[in-house]
Amino acid sequence: MRRLTTSALMFVSVLGLVVTGAFAQSTDDPGPIVVADIQGPLDQRGLDFLTETVQTPDIQLVILQVNQPGIASGDPTELYEAILASATPIAAWVGPIGSSTQGGAAQILRFAHVTSAAPDVTIGKLQPVVCCEDSSLPTGLRNIDPALDAGSVRVTEPIADLIDSVDATIGEFMGRLDGLTVETVAGPVTLETAELVEVDGSMVNVASVEIRFVKPGLTSRFLRLATRPEATLFFLVIGLSSVAFEFYAAGVGITAGVASLALFLAGYGLAVLPMNWFGVAAVLGGLALYTADFQRSSLGPFTALGTVLLFFGGANWVRSDQFGPQWWAVLLTVLAALFFFAVALTTVGRSRFATVTIGREHLIGKVGEALSAFDPDGMIDLDGAKWRATATRAANIVPGERLVVEAVTGVVLDVSPVDR
Fold first, then answer.
1. pTM for the whole thing?
2. What number of CA atoms fall less than 13 Å from residue 104's CA on the CB side?
3. pLDDT bracket for residue 252 (50, 70, 90)
4. Quick check: 63 and 116 in contact, CB under 8 A?
5. Is Transcription regulation given among the entry's keywords (predicted)?
6. Cα–Cα dist 104/133, whole Å
7. Please, how many CA atoms are within 13 Å of residue 403, restricted to the half-sphere of its CB?
8. Does the structural domain 9-216 have CATH classification 3.90.226.10?
């Protein structure tokens, strides 16, 4: 009995040592590092993602990669307050090399415990916080130079109350943070982020803890495809051009799905971006002029004016000094629309309506005279005979106008004006 009791006591002692050791090991584990990666102007979905990342439990450090041109819409107050109230150190790194951040996105630097930037990044235009809105800020941890509210600075070295260090990569920044003690609302936290190991005879810093790169959810990433101004312009032009294709050249099919998807994304972009509605009206007017010239089966002054309106509207797409569409992206979108209406849509339309009926091929190419106005159907005199005709690719045909036969469908001639 005594031997059994002694064995039981030894077992309990060993078990206690194992549990204590395991607890000590888990206590000593500094925890993983979470890196938030989000691109493009921030909207409320993007702000919510960053706030949730800052509030992630059981981690050692959060690094916010700041390279957004600004905040297009939404309220960033909850994000700023979450950073200030975080017991976990929050670091902000502006990069990669040559990028820029402005407005409310750059204001994250005011609240972060530790900041860094890659060489040659541009930081500035801190006001307005949310594009085209008056917003107030909580009191931050740094007193950033008020000159940056309207101006900007290119980072080449650390800047007091703005950038603590200059690091070319986020990995280099994490290595620099190792051993740093950061003051949070819960007290000082000493970071353990890297360790020295020998690689090919040289000592290099490698991550000593788990690194988690997190992105917004799939739905948010899909919707945020349209948060860049040039992307919203592209989706709107593609969507409306596809609608014209379906209406004039083909039945409902794949193109209708493309149009629906593009217009859905364009609608999201129009809802979250600070739109210049005069620019939007100019783009819509340009597409309308393209359609009018397509109906007339000609490339005339409407096409030229439509091209000018498209580029003007695209270049003035948003009301923002912090971010706007890239001029080259606007130009490519305009050229794509011009090619689509002038070449692709015209070619496909002609091929669809050029269904030849056996026995009447000799009529194709002949010129007759309109006997009535077309809307789009009417009557035509062809070699002294009256024929029913339709003009689906031209408008405003009046009696006496010369028409050429493009195709024959049954006993109906497909015609278009000769002199347009």
1. 0.76
2. 30
3. low
4. no
5. no
6. 11
7. 38
8. yes
Cα separation of 226 and 218, whole Å?
Answer: 14
* Res 93: pLDDT: 96
Chain centre to alpha carbon of residue 359: 55
What fold does the segment set 361-417 form as a domain? Answer: OB fold (Dihydrolipoamide Acetyltransferase, E2P) (2.40.50)
Q: pLDDT > 70: what percent of the chain? A: 87
CA-angle at 64, arms to 60 and 69, nearest 5°: 175
- Under DSSP, the state recorded for 344 is I
Question: What is the rounded distance in angstroms from the CA atom of residue 12 to the CA atom of residue 116?
Answer: 51
User: Bridge partners of 202?
Assistant: 199
Distance CA 159, CA 49 (A): 28
Is residue 384 pLDDT above 90, yes or no? no
Q: Output the pLDDT for position 28.
A: 61
CA 36 from centroid of its chain's CA atoms: 17
384 to 84, 120, 295, 346, 388: CA distances (angstroms): 88, 78, 28, 31, 13
Q: In this model, does residue 360 exceed pLDDT 70?
A: no
How far from the centroid of its chain's Cα atoms is residue 194's Cα?
34
Residues 234, 208: contact at Cβ < 8 Å? no
Residue corresponding to tokens 């150190």: 89
- Residue whose structure tokens are 């040039």: 230
For residues 286 and 310, the answer to whether their CB atoms sit within 8 Å is yes
Q: How far, rounded to the nearest angstrom, does the alpha carbon of residue 124 sit from its chain's CA centroid? A: 22
CA 345 to chain centre: 27
DSSP 96-158: STT-EEEHHHHTHHHH-SEEEE-TT-EEE---SSBTTS-------SS---GGGGT-EEE-SS-
Question: Distance between CA 64 and CA 74 in Å, rounded?
Answer: 18
